[in-house]
Design brief:
Order of helices and strands: HEHHEHHEHEHEHEEHEEHEHEEHHH
Strand order of the largest sheet: 2-1-3-4-5-6
Helix content: 40-55%
Number of helices: 14
Mean pLDDT: 91
Number of domains: 2
CATH class of the largest domain: Alpha Beta
Largest sheet: 6 strands, parallel
Strand content: 5-15%
Structural class: alpha/beta
Low-confidence stretches: 1-23
Shape: globular
Number of strands: 12
């Protein structure tokens, strides 16, 4: 997050204007992605998964603001986007909407918004804290005591939850760990759900495709890699690397093509770098919902998203262990089918989109109630 002199000056210059009566009642879901691009892409598809931000806005009776709205904002908003980044600009745009409630899908926008909300009272701010453990974010949160402005932070991993409570001193009532979600009505097993063929690996966020290539190079196992994401801005880890002859790279898949690819796999592999937040969780849950056995790197941040028996874990960066796990599942269809069943049951039991939206709604309502007490 790049907070700079320009942001500070703008906030100070606005202080007197903020003494005016604030318009109440507006509610916003802030999405730190180009929502217009996502929805336009999905509009051209005959079938696609439901989007969590749409369902959240409906459940919270809120309006969606996203990076798509920044170019349509004021001249100052557009300037902030150039100087301080889109996240700060989106926070500024939301701030001047004078909402009474904000739910923010990522801390890179929530942190500058919390800073701005120091100038305003009676506002509830809820957010998803993906990774507050970075030195820059934790310093800003601690230095400015921003959890005074935050009503509740939802985390996908115990590491982030513990860090907030133990290192930042956040009250337990303001931190809530929830499971991520998958649209289980869209990501479903094929009919009939056969054993599949080859390996499929999907995603970009902190993927370790180098280890995947090393693990399966020289085998006769066909591998399909889709190193793309509508959300992640990380570098494509397949770019500039030698691609083994048994590996096919694909991109630009429709939602149906992606689902069909999952369904066709003998094994879905999620190769991850070892980080303290659940990178790879989207691919993990989509594959499980499609009834496919998953082999996944035992990244510290993903482990509490995996129920016992719902996936095979291997050490991050261990090509030998990854190769052995894939070959074992391909050679043992009964074991692969059992893992696939457990994974699908796990997705249906704890990780549906409706459950996700309901949990966030309950946490937000509790935060609003506390702020009004």
């Amino acid at each position: 997050m790049r907070l700079n002199f320009c942001v500070t000056t703008a906030i100070r210059g606005a202080r007197l204007r903020l003494l005016m009566k604030v318009e109440k009642g507006k509610r916003f879901v802030l999405v730190t992605a180009d929502v217009d691009a996502v929805l336009n892409r999905l509009q051209g598809e005959t079938e696609s998964p439901r989007q969590d931000f749409v369902e959240l806005a409906r459940a919270l009776d809120a309006e969606i603001l996203s990076f798509s709205d920044v170019p349509r904002g004021s001249a100052l908003t557009r300037l902030l986007a150039k100087v301080a980044g889109k996240a700060v600009a989106l926070a500024w745009l939301a701030f001047w909407k004078r909402g009474s409630f904000y739910f923010v899908t990522a801390e890179n926008t929530a942190i500058p918004l919390a800073l701005m909300l120091k100038l305003r009272r009676g506002v509830t701010l809820a957010l998803i804290g993906h990774r507050i453990t970075t030195p820059q974010k934790s310093r800003v949160l601690r230095a400015f005591r921003l959890f005074n402005q935050i009503g509740v932070m939802l985390c996908y991993s115990r590491q982030q939850e513990r860090f907030a409570q133990e290192r930042l001193g956040v009250p337990a009532s303001k931190v809530c760990r929830i499971a991520f979600q998958v649209d289980e009505a869209f990501f479903t097993p094929g009919k009939p759900a056969g054993p599949g063929r080859g390996v499929v690996s999907v995603g970009r966020e902190l993927r370790d495709y180098t280890t995947l290539f090393q693990a399966l190079d020289g085998t006769d196992i066909p591998v399909t890699v889709v190193a793309s994401s509508p959300w992640s801005k990380r570098e494509d880890q397949t770019s500039g690397r030698r691609v083994p002859s048994n590996v096919t790279l694909r991109k630009g898949l429709s939602s149906i093509e992606l689902r069909d690819l999952y369904r066709s796999a003998a094994v879905v592999v999620v190769p991850l770098m070892n980080v303290d937040w659940p990178a790879g969780v989207t691919s993990l849950f989509e594959a499980q919902a499609c009834g496919r056995p998953v082999v996944i790197s035992a990244s510290e941040g993903i482990l509490d998203s995996i129920d016992p028996g719902a996936a095979v874990t291997v050490p991050s960066g261990d090509a030998g262990a990854l190769r052995a796990a894939v070959q074992r599942l391909i050679g043992n269809p009964a074991e692969a089918a059992a893992i696939a069943r457990t994974g699908r049951e796990s997705a249906l039991r704890e990780r549906t989109l409706a459950q996700f939206v309901s949990r966030i709604g309950a946490a937000c309502r509790a935060a609003e109630k506390r702020s009004q007490a």
